[in-house]
Amino acid sequence: MNDDTGHQLAVLLVEDNLGDRRLAEIALREAAADAGIACTVEAAESLAAALRRVQSGDHPVDAILLDLGLPDACGLEGLMALRSVALDTAIVVLTGLSDLRVATEALSSGASDYLEKAEIQPRTLLRAVRYSIERRKSAAEMVRLAHTDSLTGLLNRRAFFEHLEVALTQSRRSERACAVILFDIDHFKEINDVFGHRVGDEVLVEVTSRLRQHLRETDAVARIGGDEFAIVATNLQTANAAMEIAEKLVRSMAAIEDIHGLHLEVSISVGISVFPMDLAGADELVAHADLAMYKSKSSKKGSINFFDARMDAIVKVRHELKRSMPEDIQSGRFYLLFQPIVDSNSRRLIGAEALARWRDVNNKVIGPSEFIPIAEESGSITVLGNHLLEEACAQIHTWSEQQKCLVPVSLNISAIQCRDPAFATRLIAALERLEVPPQYINVEMTETTIFKSIEVIQKNLETIKSYGIGIHIDDFGTGYSSLSLLRDLPLDAVKIDRSFVRDIGRTLGSELIIQAVVDLGKKLGFLTIAEGVETEEQASLLRDIGVSALQGYYFSHPVPGAQLAGWLAKGDTHLVA
Fold first, then answer.
1. Integer Cα distance of 91 and 94 in angstroms
2. Could you give the CA distance from residue 332 to residue 292 in angstroms, rounded to a whole number?
3. Are residues 288 and 342 in the same domain?
């Protein structure tokens, strides 16, 4: 309530000397009248009276004029007491002392200004009050900005941890539980990649709005990452109370349907850690909730998981894998298996997909769904990708030397490899060095991968296509599919995701989608390959729809290169009659 907003200026004058109090009040009113400002002045004769007035909550004051010599407070004692209850209020110290040391200490203890009574003039006093108010407002705004996320207005990561530390202290005293509830938006990167960051920001703002609607006033809410939100829920009687909060959030986010006219299915994955059940500090509680959240992400949409000790064991295993990965790449513990791809009509072997495996020091075989995320997080993905590329080319070269009937081999390429401007050059150089004809290599990537840095990726694809290497899209239909991909990219094949194959013959929708992709393939000149074929019924239905090729356990599990070589030696191999 300052003069710039049209409200009157409210000043609390804390002074026990009646004469000084009247002089200050007259000077302040006189200067305010000359400046055309409505000003009210209240008086308090002691620190206790001033504290009662400030804490009453009635008509907040804009500034406090404080004498340092009060009956119940001497020196800076009164200043520090008032500052502790009036955090955002300007406090101007009035004193009869001319002491630079005292002035300096007062300013460092929270005073906004320092005036000697002998030098007070009406305009000087009013200017000190008004400037102190503006300085306090500016300081408060700087603090707010330093603790606030600029897009959502929620707390930022730094402020969240400050609130969490306070909440843990209160939890220890009250013996009530305190929960960290962490969630992020499923497939949010795809929303950004497909629809643009403006739509992504709108989703974040809408999520924030729903958070504010459904959480308690006592809960601290923060945006601590791109699409990652955190909540400190305090004063909980049981862990179930945290679950109830999380379930409410999951339902609320699932109700988001329309952003700028776009139909979006928004879901979140939630992880929860609870103090004191989880006896950990602030950093560990967040790390544990984060781990529980990633367990949720590996489950169905809208999943909620609590942290438990088993997850801690998972973290340690993951850390050990991350540590040993570089050495194991060099020592050859990563290797390839090959899963056959057959013609849908003749069932003849026409290709194979190279699938990476990792045999660790304990002789345990680890699959790509587990080690690829670790490789991407640790920065080892490029080295690993180059190693597997060399392995595949070496295997093809071996088959060629053994005079086997060669078939194309498809290599899975990660998003990070695709975004590397040197990827195409590196791939071509490897083929030339190992004397592998380009028609025996296909690069395989997901549609979501292609949406990221599409200009760089498209240039890489055009380069390798012109060299004669095939290009396949994997898992088609599971992301934000765009028909422009099928139209604009130099594709040789589209692999229909196993989720559609699994439902064929049971749901009409899956069959119609497969039929639509097949029809597009015929018109645009690319093959269609169905993944995850496990039964003769599926194989026959896919053949009848017109799918070009089939892949799955019905024909063969992934096998070593030597076993595939035996089939290649037969030349006209029919895997399933």
1. 10
2. 33
3. no
Residue 576 is assigned to a structural domain of this protein:
no
Residues 141 and 162 in one domain: no
- CATH number, residue 162: 3.30.70.270
Q: Is the separation of the CB atoms in 383 and 325 below 8 Å?
A: no
Q: Do 208 and 71 belong to one domain?
A: no
Closest CA to 12 of 53, 52, 71: 53
Contact 415, 402 (CB under 8 A): no
User: 283 — phi, psi (to 5°)?
Assistant: -60, -45
Report pLDDT digits (tens) over 299-314.
778 888 888 766 566 6
Q: Determine the structural domain holding residue 82 and report its residue range.
A: 3-146
Alpha-carbon distance of 176 to 71, in angstroms, equals 42
Is 0.85 topped by the overall pTM?
no
What CA–CA distance (Å, rounded) separates 164 from 180? 8
* Tally of structural domains, the chain: 3
Token output for 566: 């035996």
**267 has a pLDDT exceeding 80:** yes
230-258 residue pLDDT tens: 999 988 887 778 888 889 899 988 888 77
Same domain, 200 and 133: no
